[in-house]
């Protein structure tokens, strides 16, 4: 392998790892597993979703083994080049891979860093790998290594080279550097604080904590390392974190790097572990520190401290994915009853943290966004708030996550015995795209200010008493002051309506007409004539057994519906069933489909599905009819492309799983409620309170919808209602094909006073009689539109 010195360092490492993996595959798997302990995190993920993920994990030990050798060589070369005082010999041309163990052993004997070099893969590599190793050593030795030392490069390499499935298996998501810096700089405020990360992964949060201590005036590399502790259930993650920490200042001698290979829930402050215990203990139970192996140090016990700050990105794995035995263990140590089947073990980290912190200690966690709204989290938050009060709650409208997780995430910083106000921060600009100076300025502003609203962030201060009594946090992120003003006298939607989500019965093909087996030949007043596509057989189904339906938003687009449409515009039917005491087209259609349910029936006989999924048809027909509605809201909204959130049909229809149905208590309010849900005021509310699925896709859950605020309709005068309904009809009769995306719609409404959306919005503001700082209704509308554009802009950029 020939590598140019000008090649990007990441490409060099990537190429070497790929080629070296061919040789690690020649090492017996049991030998590698014994050395690496790679699946010591197996309790955190017992289920694999796909065959491709299963295949990824089969090659995991070989990838990790290659990575270990690369990281050891890079670290050795850094020590050899950057610290002349160590007098380490240069590694020349490799004649046999096992010779590397002599170099690594010398470091352990004379300097330390046992955790870095103790894992022995090199001696097990086949002799044929010598050329790859020699080329790599030669190339790396002739490159400047500043960015490896200063930029958490090995952690980034960990993210780039190892597949997400493997990192999930290792319980080691990679926290991105800038979010890690934000968290560390807000949580740590004293240079003498002891900081711990009990799910340290590759060590990114520890590195930023190290930098923060230095920033606060702690100028001793050795002292900073003494104040920083890391723990992880994965042995491999521990090795990586130790390397990343140690190379922050390799030219300064250190005899200890406090990285503990242990389950976080087995950590106990004031527990002593002897250094010499590490020589004989297994991967599953050892305390591992890199450092001097001299006899005096090895006999000295290591004490796990209480922490001033616990900073972490704990695993989000749901409780139903871990072993039953481990789940029972967690239930046994939790202070309150939790629903592990519905939430992740991050909830356990939240509750366990109090045992590891000092009396006024602080917690700084990256967590899934579900902690801000999940019903199953409510007991957890109540228990958590007995010991902690929130100082900062942070999310981003642009970045779905602060790590390489696939979930939307939030940052939580809370402190024991804290009685101050909480600050709720929303990033409008991507945190990942901020320069270092911009990030530093924002960190300073967040600490000093009580309110901020600019193009980068919004900040709201929540009084201590309000925050202490709030267990559902998601609505605290509402960033629009103008919406807060407008909705001052609103009430919850549940006063007028309830929402429901319809789940399609299986198999779908039976219930949707037309489908792959049947097409609609004729649609009469009382019957629908369907024809089999294979044998041309026709059946006449009475319309009492059918309901018009729309399945997904794409179907609405294809039909070019307007948000306010007629039942006759729809082309699809939902088959409600038949009655057993009748012989007609519905019964024949049902019998035909039962014969084609082979797969379904096999599943049913295996006990995986109910044998009679629809029960008595006469009951089911009535049940399906109860799921019909006139008003529906799109479940998942693509903020970049969607052209309507809400739809209204002139007659009740059965909506499929792509929509939420809104069941209105007073049917006379259907059009009026629809007129509000299609206004810019509700769009602003949705943007402030949506849950981000991924990228530009957002949604509200049924219970979110019911808690949304709407005007007190009964207080609006009749003449104002008539205007609203008239303008709503004008706006919502425009077909989807003639509408633009939301951002363009708002831009047009802002610039054109005669735009139908603007006329509807003006009618609502007039009816609500809102005043603000003496400004006109026109100024209020511009404020609404400006807020919407700020919220939408990140999702509509190319």
Defining key terms:
798 residues, alpha+beta, 33 helices
Give an overview in words.
- Helices cover 40% and strands 18% of the residues.
- It is built from 33 helices and 29 strands.
- It has an 11-stranded mixed beta sheet. Strands 15, 16, 20, 21, 22, 23, 25 and 26 form an 8-stranded mixed beta sheet that branches. It has a 3-stranded antiparallel beta sheet with strand order 17-18-19.
- Strand 18 (527-532) and strand 19 form a beta hairpin.
- The protein is globular and about 90 Å long.
- What is the terminal-to-terminal distance? 39 Å
The residue ranges in which pLDDT falls below 50 over 5 or more consecutive positions are 1-7, 40-50, 274-299, 598-619
Mean pLDDT: 80
What is the helical fraction, as a range of percent? 40-55%
How large a portion of the residues is in β-strands, by DSSP E? 15-25%
Structural class: alpha+beta
- Report the C-alpha radius of gyration, rounded: 31 Å
What's the structural blueprint in terms of helices and strands?
Elements: H1 9-24, H2 29-36, H3 51-58, H4 60-82, H5 100-110, H6 114-117, H7 130-141, H8 146-150, H9 153-161, H10 164-169, H11 177-187, E1 195-197, H12 204-215, H13 221-227, E2 228-232, H14 235-246, E3 256-261, E4 272-274, E5 289-291, H15 295-298, E6 301-303, E7 307-312, H16 324-333, H17 346-352, E8 357-368, H18 378-387, E9 388-396, E10 409-416, E11 422-427, H19 436-448, E12 452-453, E13 457-462, H20 464-468, H21 481-486, E14 491-492, E15 497-501, H22 508-511, E16 512-513, E17 518-523, E18 527-532, E19 538-542, E20 546-550, H23 553-558, E21 564-565, E22 572-575, H24 585-595, H25 598-605, H26 617-626, E23 628-634, E24 636-638, E25 646-655, E26 659-664, H27 670-677, H28 680-689, E27 691-694, E28 697-699, H29 702-707, E29 709-710, H30 718-732, H31 742-751, H32 756-768, H33 777-796
Parallel strand pairs: 1-2, 1-7, 2-3, 7-8, 9-11, 20-25, 21-25
Antiparallel strand pairs: 3-5, 4-6, 8-10, 9-10, 11-13, 12-13, 14-29, 15-26, 16-22, 17-18, 18-19, 20-22, 23-25, 23-26, 24-28, 27-28
């Amino acid at each position: 392998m020939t590598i140019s010195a000008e090649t990007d360092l990441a490409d060099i490492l990537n190429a070497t790892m790929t080629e070296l993996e061919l040789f690690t595959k020649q090492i017996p798997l049991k030998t590698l597993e014994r050395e690496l302990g790679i699946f010591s995190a197996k309790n955190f993920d017992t289920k694999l979703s796909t065959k491709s993920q299963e295949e990824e994990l089969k090659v995991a030990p070989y990838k990790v083994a290659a990575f270990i050798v690369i990281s050891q060589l890079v670290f050795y070369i850094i020590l050899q080049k950057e610290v002349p005082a160590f007098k380490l010999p240069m590694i020349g041309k490799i004649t046999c891979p096992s010779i590397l163990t002599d170099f690594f052993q010398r470091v352990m004997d004379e300097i330390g860093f046992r955790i870095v070099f103790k894992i022995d893969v090199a001696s097990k590599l086949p002799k044929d790998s010598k050329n790859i190793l020699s080329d790599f050593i030669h190339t790396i030795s002739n490159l400047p290594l500043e960015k490896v030392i200063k930029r958490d490069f090995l952690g980034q390499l960990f993210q780039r080279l190892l597949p997400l499935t493997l990192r999930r298996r290792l319980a080691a998501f990679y926290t991105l550097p800038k979010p890690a810096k934000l968290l560390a700089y807000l949580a740590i405020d004293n240079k003498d604080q002891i900081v711990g990360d009990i799910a340290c992964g590759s060590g990114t949060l520890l590195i930023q904590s190290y930098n923060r201590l230095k920033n606060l005036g702690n100028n001793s590399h050795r002292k900073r390392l003494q104040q920083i502790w890391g723990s992880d259930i994965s042995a491999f993650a521990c090795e990586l974190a130790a390397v990343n920490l140690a190379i922050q200042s390799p030219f300064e001698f250190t005899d200890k790097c406090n990285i503990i290979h242990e389950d976080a829930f087995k950590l106990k402050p004031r527990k002593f572990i002897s250094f010499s215990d590490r020589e004989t203990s297994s991967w599953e139970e050892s305390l591992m520190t890199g450092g001097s192996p001299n006899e005096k140090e090895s006999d000295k016990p290591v004490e796990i401290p209480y922490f001033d700050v616990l900073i972490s990105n704990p695993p989000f794995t749901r409780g139903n994915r871990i072993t039953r035995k481990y789940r029972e263990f967690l239930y046994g140590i939790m202070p309150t009853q939790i629903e592990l089947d519905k939430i992740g073990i991050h909830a356990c980290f939240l509750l366990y943290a109090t045992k590891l912190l000092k009396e006024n200690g602080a917690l700084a966690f990256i967590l899934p966004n579900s902690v801000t709204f999940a019903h199953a989290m409510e007991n957890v938050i109540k228990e958590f708030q007995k010991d902690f009060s929130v100082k900062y709650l942070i999310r981003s409208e642009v970045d779905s996550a602060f790590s390489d997780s696939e979930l939307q995430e939030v940052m939580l910083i809370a402190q024991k015995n804290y009685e101050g106000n909480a600050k709720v921060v929303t990033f409008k600009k991507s945190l990942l795209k901020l320069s270092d100076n911009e990030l530093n300025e924002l960190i300073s502003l967040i600490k000093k200010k009580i309110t901020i609203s600019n193009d980068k962030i919004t900040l709201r201060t929540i009084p201590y008493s309000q925050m202490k009594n709030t267990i559902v946090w998601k609505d605290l992120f509402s960033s629009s002051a103008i919406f807060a003003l407008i909705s001052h006298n609103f009430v919850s939607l549940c006063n007028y309506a309830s929402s429901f989500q319809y789940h399609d019965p299986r198999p779908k093909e039976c219930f949707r007409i037309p489908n792959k087996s049947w097409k609609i030949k004729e649609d009469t007043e009382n019957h629908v004539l369907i024809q089999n596509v294979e044998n041309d057989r026709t059946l006449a189904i009475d319309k009492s057994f059918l309901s018009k339906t729309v399945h997904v938003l794409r179907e609405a687009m294809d039909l070019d519906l307007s948000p306010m449409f007629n039942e006759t515009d729809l082309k699809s039917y939902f088959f409600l069933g038949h009655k057993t005491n009748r012989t007609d087209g519905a019964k024949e259609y049902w019998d035909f489909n039962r014969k084609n349910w082979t797969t379904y029936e096999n599943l049913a006989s295996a006990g995986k599905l109910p044998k009679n999924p629809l029960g008595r048809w006469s009951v089911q027909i009535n049940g399906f009819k109860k799921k019909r509605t006139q008003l529906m809201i799109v479940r998942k909204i693509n903020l970049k492309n969607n052209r309507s959130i809400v739809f209204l049909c002139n007659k009740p229809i059965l909506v499929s799983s792509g929509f939420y149905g809104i069941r209105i208590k007073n049917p006379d309010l259907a059009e009026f409620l629809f007129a509000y849900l299609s206004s810019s005021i509700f769009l602003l509310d949705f943007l402030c309170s949506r849950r981000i699925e991924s990228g530009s896709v957002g949604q509200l859950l049924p219970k979110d919808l019911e808690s949304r605020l709407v005007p007190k309709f009964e207080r609006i005068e009749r003449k104002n209602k008539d205007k609203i309904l008239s303008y709503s009809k004008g706006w919502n009769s425009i077909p989807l094909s003639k509408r633009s995306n939301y951002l363009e719609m708002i831009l047009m409404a802002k610039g054109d006073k005669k735009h139908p959306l603007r006329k509807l919005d003006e009618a609502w503001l007039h009816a609500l009689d809102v005043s603000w700082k003496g400004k006109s209704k026109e100024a209020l509308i511009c404020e609404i539109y400006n807020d919407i554009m700020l919220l939408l802009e990140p999702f509509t950029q190319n």
